[in-house]
Design brief:
Helices cover 35% and strands 30% of the residues. The protein contains three helices and four strands. The chain has helices at residues 3-12, 32-41, 59-70; strands at 20-25, 49-54, 73-80, 83-89. A four-stranded mixed β-sheet has the order 1-2-4-3, covered by helices on one side. It is globular, with a radius of gyration of 13 Å. The model has no long low-confidence stretch (mean pLDDT 89).
């Protein structure tokens, strides 16, 4: 589905602005959290916010690096009790 189709669906359904989505990538090891993030971002629109929840500490470097390469903005990273959360804005 193209970005125009997604935008059209959002407008037809009465939704406007950005959406916030959470991706559960817990118990997945590299490179799966990055691949799942990439797949999810393809379904989102510019300005949408994606929260990725992981248990693999490698995501703290991998997902921000993927964001830099692909032009997305990392809004927040945090690590609490063996869980790693990256919040990014789709650009």
């Amino acid at each position: 589905m193209s970005q125009d189709d997604l935008q059209g669906r959002r407008e037809c359904s009465g939704l406007s602005g950005t959406s916030a989505v959470t991706l559960n990538a817990r118990r997945l090891l590299c490179p799966l959290p990055v691949i799942r993030t990439q797949d999810k971002v393809k379904t989102l629109l510019s300005g949408d916010v994606l929260t990725v929840e992981c248990t693999d500490p490698g995501v703290m470097q991998d997902i921000p690096a993927w964001c830099r390469i692909n032009g997305h903005k990392v809004l927040e990273t945090k690590a609490v009790d063996g869980e790693y959360v990256i919040v990014l804005e789709v650009v």
